[in-house]
Structure formats: C-alpha cells, structure tokens
Design brief:
This is HAD superfamily hydrolase (TIGR01509 family). By secondary structure, this protein is of the alpha/beta class. The chain contains ten helices and six strands. The chain has a six-stranded parallel β-sheet with strand order 3-2-1-4-5-6, with helices on both faces. β4, α8 and β5 form a beta-alpha-beta unit.
Length: 224
C-alpha cells in the first residue's frame, strides 16, 4: 500500500511552542517544598505528559503534598497562569512555525496542559484561529504516554493517524504520538532530553522549530 499524503499536523504545547517544562517543574517543586516534602529522584520526568488528575494525584499520593488533589492542582495551575500573565514564554520560531504549517494543513494541538492554560497561551499568542482542534489530556481517559490525546485529536480532525504528523519534545510525548500511529518530528527539549528509545520513535529529529518546513513535513509521507 502506498504511503498516504499528510493531511494534518498536530503540535504539542509545553516544550514545543512554550518554554514551560522548567516552569512546571519549578512550580510543582515549590508547592512540595512549602509543604516540607522532598522532591523524589525521577519525579520530574515521571510527571511530564501526565494529565491534570494524574499529576495532582502523584503530588498528593507519592510526594505527600497535603490537601485534595483538585485543590493542589488548582494552586499549581493558578501559579502557572500568573507566570504566563507576566511573560508568555514562547519558544523561538513558535508563532512562525504554526503560521507556516497552517497555510498547508489543518492543525491540531495535543497537550498535557489544562484547558485553562491552553486557551490562555493560544489567545495571548494570537494563534487560536490557527488550530482547528485542541485537546487537553484532562479531557481524555489518560495522559501521555497513553495515545489517548492524539487519538482524540485525529478523530476530531477526521483524518487517519498515519495521515498526520506530530511535533513533540519529551519522552512521554514522543511515545504517545507514536503509539497513536502518527509520524513524529522530535524537537528535543534541551533541559529534559528525551530517552534514546523514545527519540528512536521519531521519523526525524530537528534542532529548532525553524527546521520544520512544509517540505520536511511532506517528506515524511515517503519515510513511512
């Protein structure tokens, strides 16, 4: 069977369009530290890609931050929103790559951020109109590395997974997109480099968003 043409592109948000992975880490660590709880080895990577219910449960059940998960989640999200209001940490080339690819394909967004922050980022960056679909992992049954969020995005875009290209930066994000059957472009997060096995799931690895051109996306149809 011939490889299908690319019919859609799906972006991750944190670490791809906004330089927020380190901010999430700082805020969560801060909440734990204020409660007098040490930060376990491996917690940062474990939390990447989790949905809001998953990471708030992790903070309360594993790290032992006191309070109900939903209240801890609300505190973390409020702190992140405050940071975004002060300065939206868009990554270099973020606006340009979205506009560039939106002129060729319908775009989706598959994010572990809560809906509140997704909408805040897209509205502040004047990019909301560029995305036909956006889905938060809190709106599906499981966060990344589950394929659920990507499966829902391509369902709403009405394309087959193998007709879509995902743009991801983290281990769990790469695994999520690949498990859903999308072709994957990796833009490795320099602060939290993906695991080698996760990076190996990508069809191509680039060093910056400027490297992601329409011709590169089109070429993925031939790579299989």
């Amino acid at each position: 069977m011939a490889d299908p043409e690319i019919q859609a592109v799906v972006f991750d948000l944190d670490g791809v369009l906004v330089d927020s992975e380190q901010q999430w880490d700082e805020v969560r660590r801060g909440v734990a530290a204020e409660a007098g709880r040490p930060w376990p080895v491996g917690a940062t990577r474990a939390l990447q890609g989790m949905s809001t219910p998953e990471w708030s449960d992790y903070l309360t059940a594993v790290i032992d931050v006191p309070g109900r998960p939903q209240d801890v989640a609300a505190e973390v999200i409020d702190r992140m929103a405050s940071r975004y209001r002060l300065r939206l940490p868009l990554l270099p080339g973020a606006i340009e790559v979205v506009r560039r690819l939106a002129s060729h394909w319908p775009l989706g967004l598959a994010s572990s951020s809560p809906r509140q922050l997704i909408d805040a980022v897209l509205d502040s960056a004047n990019l909301a109109s560029k995305f036909r679909v956006s889905v938060s992992t809190e709106e599906v049954q499981a966060g990344k590395p589950s394929p659920a969020v990507y499966e829902e995005v391509v369902r709403q875009l009405t394309v087959e997974a193998r007709q879509a290209v995902a743009i991801e930066d983290s281990s769990n994000g790469l695994r999520s997109a690949a498990r859903a059957g999308l072709r994957v472009i990796a833009v490795p997060n320099k602060a939290f480099l993906p695991d080698k096995d996760a990076l190996g799931l990508a069809s191509v690895v680039v060093h910056s968003l400027d490297d992601i051109t329409a011709s590169l996306v089109t070429s993925l149809a031939e790579r299989g």
